[in-house]
Amino acid sequence: MSFEGKVVAITGAASGIALSLAHLLGSRGAKLSLCDISKHSLDNLVQTLVTQGVEAFGTVVDVSSREAVDDWIASTINVYGRLDGAANVAGIELGFTNIENLPDETWDKMIAVNLTCVMYCVRAQIRVMGHGASIVNAASLAGIMGRSGIGAYACAKHGVVGLTKTVAKEVGVKGIRVNAVAPGPIETPMLNRLLQSAPSSTSSTTTNTYSNLPLQRKGEAEEVAKTIAFLLSDDTSFTTGAIVTVDGGAAA
Known about the structure:
The chain is α/β, with parallel strands linked by helices.
């Protein structure tokens, strides 16, 4: 799948799945507009990509800010003149808390960064995209089933699923496709932080999902990145509103 000449925007680009995706799409010829909250990590990524001959630039963005997101997409158009694809991958985890004990501020931040930010990004992206463009949002296994102890995260990711399906129906007439991936346990810094924070009383079905998977392992970030690239590509030109699981069979 060549992305030669295509412009793709990626959120959360400096780590995990989005980092793998940036390297993958860059190797396939994409021009990249990358954003992340971490300036140091983002600068290192852009420098590495440019050294490899990839056309890329980075912008420090707090994706929970509408103004920051709008400015980033506007700068992408200013630099490249177009936007052909977008992968909205940025997200956070804030440890384990049952709904009964969930602080308001934890709920508010989880919804802001894991759901509202996706709406901000999608809204800005579809306003500048043309026929044939494609968006992939990062949902989660927690977006298609309940997950004990991470209720705020699960609710936000369920929202991403609903947003993806809704926007797909709204912009299909423009020839824009909108899909989502629903990763299971993937070997990333985010998952490792979450598991390390789990109290001993937390349900094993949440913390040890991978041990019961048909494939008997956690996934790798690159495996999810390849699925996102597939959905962004013209090879899925008749696929929209789909939620594609990348979970080792957890939801089977």
